[in-house]
Known about the structure:
Elements: H1 10-29, H2 40-47, H3 51-57, H4 61-83, H5 88-104, H6 109-120, H7 130-136, H8 151-164, H9 174-195, H10 202-214
Helix pairs in contact: 1-2, 1-4, 1-7, 5-10, 6-9, 8-9, 9-10
Amino acid sequence: MLATSELPGLRERKAARLKIQLVDLLTKELQHRGFHEIGVEELCEKAMISKVTFFKYFPTKDALLWYHSTVWIYRIKADCLLKGLEGIAALRFLFNDMAAHFNEHINLFGYYFSVNSLQVSGEVRPLLSDAEKLVLYPDGSTLGLGINYSLGEFFRHHVRKARKAGDIRTDMTVETQAVLFGSLFQGAGLVGLRIDPARPGDNFHTTFNAILRLLKP
């Protein structure tokens, strides 16, 4: 928690609220149509800002999607830390969250995974500011947690925890198991779309349980 004198200034907090507002607007619009059908102008109109202001924070619409996925992975990791979830519990939380996410926002799937594949491969993304963290968690509970934004590191970290707890086998390397979780996490939605286009997210539950059976000690 930051001391009062260290809290972000008014201008920074206003900018943070606007960026998170645009994320929320994009999420809402993606309930009804695809990413490429949503224009910057209409997002600006709904947010009551100019295009100049939009491009001040996001040079392209794709940059907003990249930021959207940054906020998502931050929330996943922060919630795991705040709830004390580790190992299998944290990995299940990730799969369950994605299941609910894509059942509600099917139009987001293809675009979202195209950017999140960069996270699995280790692509570095910008860190959220303290002002942005305070918009997401107004009580300041996530400040100072030192959250890593790599989804690949999330898999490696919690695979290690699961191995230590005796929940998964140890005759494979940590990296192999992390790649297994990451690859099947990526593929779960694609398979889900083929199995049940109306509720593709349900396949994340099926996939996670299949991984656990495969890695059972």
